[in-house]
Amino acid sequence: MPQIGKRELELPLIQGGMGIGVSLGGLAGAVAACGAMGVVSAANPGFDEADFDTDPDAANLRALTEQIHRARETSKGRGLIGVNVMVATRQYAQNVRVAVAAGADAIISGAGLPIQLPELAGGSKAALAPIVSSGRAAHTICKLWDRHHAIAPDFVVVEGSEAGGHLGFSRDELLGHLAQPLEGIVADVRDAVAPFAQKHGHAIPVFAAGGVYDGDDAARLMEAWAAGVQVATRFIATPECDASPAYKEQMLAAREEDVVIIDSPVGMPGRALRTPLIQRLLAGEDLSPRRCYHCLRPCNPATAPYCITEALIAAVRGDVDNGLFFCGGNVHRLDRLMGVPQLIAQILPRREVAP
């Protein structure tokens, strides 16, 4: 069992954070109830709040607290509750502080280097983990955390090129499949964090993410020295997922040729389904944002080709025409809904999974 801070994770599995509104308290709590780590996404969790259009900041912080508490209640005291907080968001610092105050067991942070995370977590009991795509990034984060805060990460998530959403790879790497295999990145990250684990006297478990689909994938990666795996897209096709039925149906209907690499409004490449929204963007249609929700720091609404918040909200509500559906590289393999306990048993077939 991987050691996560001062807690043991019963099952070596993390459910990846998916926003907007895809992994909230319902899904995260169901995953934790099986003994794994369920993760609430801090990406605009207040999108359904009455005041979201007028005061998105307040709506998001209130909803994040509520969703963490919901996950905790649903978990029935098992597993761990994590929160995924993207560095690139304007509410990054506030989200971390709120997640800690609400009792999150872990803060997982990517979409940038989470250099300030230890300071923002304020010496709390929450385990802290960066998401990285290379050994170099892992070394940089460990070095800075060690120098400025005298700590090392409690665990690390290594995201490979088959992951969904915003990715830490170039478009050329993604389109040409030139990125290093996930097993190789895991090995590089393991080597990068080893000196810091030794210095600080605790293990730094490395979890492999990106295209993990079944027990064969999990076994292969753990044989390559991963402590466990992080899985996201597969959890969409569960009754417990917080997204709408129409969102899940879109994922279940996806074919391999429907998956494309797109540029988000902030210039980061991402993996998503080819929907009417994507087709209109590729055709050069003007989809300039009508308003700004102040979600991502690098985004300039005056030059952004579309509003990523509006597109993700449309998707989670099942609006296929206007939605942006981020997905992992194996989305085409989804063929049916499966309950969270059954799904986890398929990914970790040699483990005892009980809801």
Question: Would you give an account of this structure?
Answer:
With 355 residues, the protein is an alpha/beta fold. The protein has 2 domains: 3-243 and 336-347, Aldolase class I (TIM Barrel); 245-332, no CATH class. 36% of the residues lie in helices and 15% in strands. The chain has helices at residues 25-32, 56-75, 92-101, 117-121, 135-149, 171-176, 182-200, 215-223, 233-236, 245-252, 276-282, 308-316, 340-347; strands spanning 3-4, 7-8, 13-15, 37-41, 80-86, 106-110, 127-132, 156-159, 165-166, 206-209, 228-231, 259-263, 269-273. The strands form 3 sheets. Strands 3-11-10-8-7-6-5-4 form an 8-stranded parallel beta sheet. Strands 9-13-12 form a 3-stranded antiparallel beta sheet. It has a two-stranded antiparallel ribbon with strand order 1-2. The two termini are 18 Å apart.
Short description:
36% of the residues lie in helices and 15% in strands.
Which blocks of ≥5 consecutive residues have pLDDT under 50?
Answer: none
Number of spatially distinct domains = 2
Main β-sheet: number of strands, strand sense, barrel status? 8 strands, parallel
**Helix and strand string, N-terminal first?**
EEEHEHEHEHEHEEHHEHEHHEEHHH
CATH superfamily of the largest domain: Aldolase class I
Q: Order of strands across the biggest sheet?
A: 3-11-10-8-7-6-5-4
Structural category: alpha/beta
Count of helical segments?
13
What's the gyration radius in Å?
Answer: 19 Å
**Beta-strand segment tally:** 13
Shape: globular
Distance between the termini: 18 Å
CATH architecture of the largest domain: Alpha-Beta Barrel
Per CATH, the class of the largest domain reads Alpha Beta
Q: Within the CATH hierarchy, at the fold level, what is the topology of the largest domain?
A: TIM Barrel
